[in-house]
Every structure is written in structure tokens, then in C-alpha cells.
Design goal:
Layout (H helix, E strand, L loop, with lengths): L5 H16 L1 H16 L11 E7 L2 E10 L2 H6 L11 E11 L2 E2 L8 E6 L5 E8 L7 E2 L4 E8 L2 H5 L6 E3 L7
Parallel strand pairs: 2-3
Antiparallel strand pairs: 1-2, 1-9, 3-8, 4-7, 5-6, 5-8
Helix pairs in contact: 1-2
Length: 173
């Protein structure tokens, strides 16, 4: 959900390796740790939603998304959410083109991560990212933004690399 600080990334990779080596003991521990951290995270019950459209080969899809514009909002992302509405999600504005690295720490539901170039075109989609994982998910190239939607939503809606995002963040040309 957020860009990973290097020390945290190393610690997280060690924890994940341990968890994968001992899956029966590790997963409940990760869930308990997430539950404890989530108890301290405030989720806005009435977030401001922006309309966002995705132009696909099959037509235009309308979404309603929260926009993470500040470092604090980008860091929290969709952590601790138990549900996400169909055609809902969160758009992360990184303000400049850059390689982006995300993770799913304290994220309780699977997500699809849609990496978006400055021109609004989809660079790549990381589908069904696993909940509670600290594995790094890379944009694969410099991007301006990331749209997180419910796990499997990209496939259900037929989203593909090259489709275009229409939102004020991406000026029309």
C-alpha cells in the first residue's frame, strides 16, 4: 500500500520468509499483528469520492475512488479495510513519474494494483495481491499513480495494459 522504507523492507522480507517456512504458525501471527495495528488506524467512514473512468476496448467503465494525495494518505492506503465496493478503490497520486513499490502489510483483502503512466495509460496490473503480505510489488517502470481496486476486479471488468484512465490527475491530450 505504501512505498517501502529500505529497513522496513528488509525486516519485512525476513518476516515473510519465516512465515512461508512455517505457514501454520506464521499466518495467525500476521493476522494478529495486523489486527493490533488496525485497532489504532482511523478509517474515514465518509471519504470524499472522485469519479474516475477507464476507457477499455469494450467501452467506458465508471468508478468512484478515494484519492491519496498526501504522504500520510499514501502510507495508510487501504490498510485495515474489510470490504471494498465494486468499481470502488483508491487512487494514489505520486505527483511525479517514478518507479513505485507497494506492499499489502495490514491490508486485509486482496487487491488489484493498476499502475498508471503520466498520460493516463495503464502500464501494468498486479492482480490478486495477497492480503497481509510484505512482498514488494513493483510498477515495473516509472509511473505517476496507482489505482487499487478489489482483487479480481481488473479481470472481471476486462482491464488491460494500455487502457486509459480519465481523471483530472491525467490531463486529456
Amino acid at each position: 500500500m505504501s512505498q517501502i522504507p529500505s529497513r522496513a523492507a528488509l525486516a519485512a522480507k525476513f518476516a515473510l520468509a519465516f512465515t512461508l517456512a512455517f505457514p501454520l504458525a506464521g499466518l495467525p501471527g500476521l493476522a494478529r499483528a495486523a489486527e493490533a495495528e488496525c485497532a489504532q488506524i482511523k478509517i474515514n467512514p465518509n471519504p470524499v469520492l472522485d469519479p474516475l473512468e477507464i476507457v477499455t476496448a469494450k467501452g467506458v467503465l465508471a468508478f468512484q475512488v478515494e484519492v491519496a494525495r498526501t504522504n500520510e494518505q499514501r502510507t495508510q492506503g487501504l490498510m485495515c479495510r474489510k470490504t471494498l465496493p465494486e468499481r470502488g478503490g483508491m487512487l494514489f497520486d505520486f505527483k511525479v513519474d517514478q518507479p513505485v513499490y507497494m506492499w499489502m502489510k495490514n491490508t486485509l483483502i486482496p487487491l488489484d494494483m493498476v499502475f498508471i503512466r503520466a498520460d493516463g495509460s495503464i502500464a501494468r496490473i498486479a492482480a490478486m495481491t495477497p492480503p497481509l503480505s510484505t512482498e514488494t510489488i513493483s510498477s515495473g517502470e516509472p509511473v505517476r499513480a496507482v489505482l487499487e481496486i478489489g482483487g479480481g476486479e481488473a479481470r472481471r471488468q476486462g482491464l488491460k495494459a494500455g487502457d486509459k484512465i480519465a481523471h483530472p490527475m491525467f490531463p486529456a491530450k
